[in-house]
Amino acid sequence: MTAWQDEGIRIRRMVPEDYEEAYTLWEHTPGMHLHSLNNTYGGIALLLAKNPDSCFVAVDESGKVIATALGATDGRKGYLYHVAVDEQWRGHGIGTTLINRIYDVFKAIGIIKIGIMVVADNIEGQEFWKKQGWKTRPDVIYFDRDL
């Protein structure tokens, strides 16, 4: 058992009812850009409906969301979204545990490649992912377009 588990923190699947608290956490997480319509209640509810087994939250003793990590797949590649841990709980391994849960789900369904997008000026986020063993790809530039 880890120190955070001793303090009543538990991990469970994210449900749409977690949206308000999760969004508040994301708003207070440096480097988290929430401008896309994909980040509305409807957008997140759709992601959860299509990926119910790979989206997780950590909650404290009162049930308050203190961390999130959303995993989604297109059937051949997995993606991580909205990995965030409340500032008070950073450095305790909660984020790593959430990510590892997603890795396990992806492995179980045959996903062998995972991608993540980190905002260019989010240095803290980039350092976190480097410590997790991720590397940047100098061969691609990411584009997106709102419809």
TrEMBL record:
GO terms for molecular function: acyltransferase activity, transferring groups other than amino-acyl groups. SUPFAM superfamilies: Acyl-CoA N-acyltransferases (Nat) (SSF55729). InterPro entries: Acyl_CoA_acyltransferase (IPR016181), Bact_Acetyltransf (IPR050832), GNAT_dom (IPR000182). Pfam families: Acetyltransf_1 (PF00583). Residues 9-147 form the N-acetyltransferase domain. Keywords: Acyltransferase, Transferase. The keyword Coiled coil does not apply. PROSITE patterns: GNAT. This is GNAT family N-acetyltransferase.
